[in-house]
Amino acid sequence: MTEGNSGVSSRDFQIDITHPTPQSNGDIFYGEMKFLRSKNPNGCLPELHEETDGTPSLRLAVARDAYLGVNTDDALRNDRCELRDAKLKLGTPVWYSFEMRADPEFPVVDARCVCAQIKAPYYDANGGSPLFALRIDRGRYLATIEHLYEIKDSDIVNGIEMSNHVRPYPGPAESSVRAFDHHVFGNTFRDFKELQVRAVLATDSLGLPPHLEDEFRWSTDLVEVRQERPLPDDIHAWQRFTIRVAPTEIKDQDAVLQFWMRDPRSGENELVATAVGEFGHVGYPDTGGNDEPPPDEAHQYFKIGPYRDKIRIWEGKPAAIYVRNIKRGYWEQGTTLRAAASLT
User: Fold this and answer.
1) In sequence order, what are the residues at sequence separation of 6 or more whose Cβ sits closer than 8 angstroms to the Cβ of residue 321?
2) CATH number of 3-343
3) Residue 305 CA neighbour count, 13 Å, CB half
4) Looking at the predicted structure, is the pLDDT value of residue 7 above 50?
């Protein structure tokens, strides 16, 4: 494997989509990645698909009433059809590479459908939002990054939290990163929880889709994003994406993420964007001050496949993507870059 300076290690894998191992409970194993039947409400079973050039891909799709056997609240909130790898210790520097295209009939609506994500849970009983997400929104690619927001990042004025780092977005001249603040202000010191702010990592050449202008109406300087090139404008053509990430390893440590794509003309990997910030939640070494998780229990993992909120705008239309060449490897350079980022 050649992505991100990787040597062979126990963290490395390449998925063989042509030889799945079905389980008696409905799960399907693809080597190191698994489709878990009970965690994929309205998820169609993964389906091997032959491309026009004769190479295989895996169709991952969600559709109304495709699977109603999930007996958790998840089934009321979202639709999923995802493969996931095993959890790694938070802070493990790794890269993920995959090829993807959207189905020609992929719905074009004003709603997000996450296609690939890295989870490194923040404060949330359900695991929080993804550290990294590549999504399709109104038929266009958009990538986001989530960073930690803590009590030390705010002032408490008259018992109420006042943000020091998340402000209304004033326009294109703003030097900080455009963001969506999805934690509720008005917390007091007593009930404050370490939460997240979602920032824009990359868009296609047209920029942020118009219907998201109001959602991403904030800016944040808690994360640094350097954008190098836009994402592809065509979601239906095959693209290869690579995410390299060295997440937060200890409390209050900056982390590094790089997002790459292959240029279809040159065949070379090109850097889309780099982000530096506190990615992932790890508790304080002193367990008396912890709001979870303890340092030795924090983790990270990767998922690929459509995830969408269960909202009326989808009108029951299925959403499908095709994936192939899914790989993971150890990102040796990530440790060095993370150490350098934490010193700046």
Assistant:
1) 59, 60, 61, 100, 101, 102, 103, 106, 115, 305, 306
2) 2.60.120.200
3) 29
4) no
Q: Say what the pLDDT of residue 77 is.
A: 87
Quick one: DSSP state of residue 94? E
Whether the per-residue pLDDT at 8 is higher than 50: the answer is no
Domain boundaries, the chain: 3-343
Which residues, in sequence order, are bridge partners of residue 309? 78
In this predicted model, what pLDDT tens digit does every residue of 294-344 receive, in sequence order? 777 889 999 999 999 999 999 989 999 999 999 999 999 999 999 999 776
Contact 306, 318 (CB under 8 A): no
What is the residue whose two structure tokens read 């065509």?
234
Would you say 284 and 297 are in contact if contact means Cβ atoms under 8 Å apart? no
**Cβ-based neighbour number of residue 149 at 10 Å:** 25
Closest residue by Cα to residue 138 from 102, 172, 178, 182: 102
Lookup: tokens for 160: 């109420």
Residue pair 196/132 in contact (Cβ under 8 Å)? The answer is no
DSSP states of 322-335 as a string?
EEEEEEEEE-HHHH
pTM score, whole prediction = 0.92
With vertex at residue 75, the alpha carbon angle to CA 59 and CA 40, rounded to the nearest 5 degrees, is 30
